Amino acid sequence: MPLEGKNAVIYGGGGAIGGAVARHFARDGARVFLAGRTIATLDAVAAEITAHGGRAETARVDVFDSDAVEAHAEAVAATAGGIDIALNAVSVMHDQGTTLAGLSIAEFMRPVDGFLRSLFITSKAVARHMGGDRPGVILTLSEPGAKLAMPGLLGHAASAAAKEAFTRVLAAELAPAGVRVVGIRPHAVADAPAAGSYTGELFAPMAAASGLSVPEFLDGALAGGTMLKRLPELAEIAEMAAFLASGRARNVTGTIVNLSGGALVD
Ligand SMILES: NC(=O)c1ccc[n+]([C@@H]2O[C@H](COP(=O)([O-])OP(=O)(O)OC[C@H]3O[C@@H](n4cnc5c(N)ncnc54)[C@H](OP(=O)(O)O)[C@@H]3O)[C@@H](O)[C@H]2O)c1
Fold first, then answer.
1. Ligand 1 centroid to residue 2 C-alpha, Å
2. Around 244, how many Cα atoms within 13 Å sit in the side-chain half-sphere?
3. Mean pLDDT throughout 80-104?
4. Do residues 118 and 11 touch, judged by C-beta distance below 8 A?
5. Report field, pTM of the whole predicted structure over 0.85
6. How far is residue 76's CA from residue 117's CA, in Å, rounded to a whole number?
7. Is it the case that residue 266 has pLDDT exceeding 70?
8. 193 neighbors 214 (Cβ within 8 angstroms)
9. Whole-angstrom Cα distance, residue 128 to residue 132?
10. Which Pfam family, any one, appears in the UniProt record (predicted)?
11. For the domain bounded by 7-187+232-259, which CATH number is listed?
């Protein structure tokens, strides 16, 4: 059990990626604390975990409410004895496809502000409960947009690149305390829309513009643009997160793991 005795906080734990990672963390022995705005979806993931013998607790927390996030982290640390692992898997709906002339400043800033603000608030809340005599791990999620030069991705790409920069710099800051910070960059996740992800709605206009359903769009245009001609699946992201959170990855920090199937060359 590589995560035995570890306490993991997952923001967006009722979502497609957050839920999948929570199940894998619990499978590997972690006690998971799921945070999000909708208690029903969090409880559904927790019920599945406990039904399989795992330990999961849920809390209604809005990641943009820094006081609430701080109070939740404080409560988790007090109850469980510390925080060892944290993942921010919160989604921020945003535009993809609109170029500069048609893009408003508000729409451009929406993913930049939303993703960065939530990453800052959650990282700050957990970091002070990590490290010292027990090493900590903060995992982040980005997108291939961090590296893509394609029209219509100004806000998305800027936010993705900023999340990766945040990951690297925070890793340098927290390394002396024994905390690793590692990013995971999936491509569009093949089975996420079917699991209720916001990406179903995000990709719908682009799919419709090509006369395709969302699954056809993912299978065709997006998977076709990767070296392996396939997109990552939720279980593959969760396996990588569980590996990176474990001591088996104890020398890995300040980097981004590219799970895109080779959408880009680093
Ligand atoms: N899915 C993909 O294809 C993909 C690819 C690359 C990277 N990613 C990254 O992974 C993240 C998660 O993706 P996903 O597919 O798992 O999204 P998702 O299924 O839509 O899940 C996101 C979760 O975030 C929660 N959330 C949203 N706003 C929140 C807030 N203010 N406070 C607390 N929780 C909030 C949502 O629950 P409530 O609304 O109930 O709070 C939801 O459970 C994305 O945002 C992105 O950064 C995803």
1. 26
2. 30
3. 97
4. yes
5. yes
6. 21
7. no
8. yes
9. 10
10. adh_short_C2
11. 3.40.50.720
Q: Give the number of the atom of ligand 1 that is nearest the alpha carbon of residue 188.
A: 3
Give the tokens for residue 232: 């990552």
Which strands form 136-141's sheet, in the order they lie side by side?
A: 55-60, 31-36, 7-11, 85-88, 136-141, 179-186, 255-259
Domain ranges in the chain are: 7-187+232-259
Unique residue bearing structure tokens 């709906």: 93
Q: Give the number of the atom of ligand 1 that is nearest the alpha carbon of residue 195.
A: 19
**Residue range 190-215, pLDDT digits in tens:** 999 999 999 999 999 999 999 999 99
CB atoms < 10 A from the CB of 150, how many?
11
Give dist(CA 172, CA 181) in Å, integer. 8
- pLDDT for res 264: 66
Q: Is the CB of 16 under 6 A from ligand 1?
A: yes
- Residue 221: per-residue pLDDT: 86
**8 Å CB contact between 258 and 264:** yes
Ligand 1 pocket, 64 CB below 6 A? yes
Q: 188: Cβ below 6 Å to ligand 1?
A: yes
pLDDT at res. 265: 56
Predicted confidence at residue 132, as pLDDT, reads: 86
pLDDT by residue (tens digit) across 95-135? 999 999 999 999 999 999 999 999 999 999 999 999 888 89
CA-to-CA distance for 110 and 182, rounded, in angstroms? 24
